[in-house]
Amino acid sequence: MPVPHTKRICQIIKLKPSAVDEYKAIHAAVWPGVLVALERAHIVDYSINYYPPLQLLIATMKYTGSDYEADMKKVSEDPETQKWWSMTDGMQESFVEGAEGSGKEIPWWTEVEEVFRFEGTTK
Description:
By secondary structure, this protein is of the alpha+beta class.
C-alpha cells in the first residue's frame, strides 16, 4: 500500500503566562469534534509543545491530503473548532502582524521553515 504524500508543518505562537495552566488543562481533554475536524482535514501526528523560557507553543503536524488550503478552510468553517479557537486564541499572542485570530485571512500561528530532516536511515 503506498504511503500518502506528507507535508510536515511546524508553527509557533506565544502563550500568555497567565494562561499556562488553563491551556494545558483544556488540551488534556480536547473536544472530540475538534479532533474529528482535524482528522477529516487529513491532519495526523499533531502535537503542541511548550517552552516556558520564551512562553512559546510549538505545534507540529503532518498533512496527508492533496489540497492543504481547501482542507484548512474546512477546519476554519467547523462550528466546534470555531468555538474552541474563541477560547484558545485569548490565551495566545500571535507573532504575525495584523493577525486577529485563528481561521482568519492572516494566519494566527507563524509557520516555521524546516531546515533539516532525518528520517531514520543512513543506508
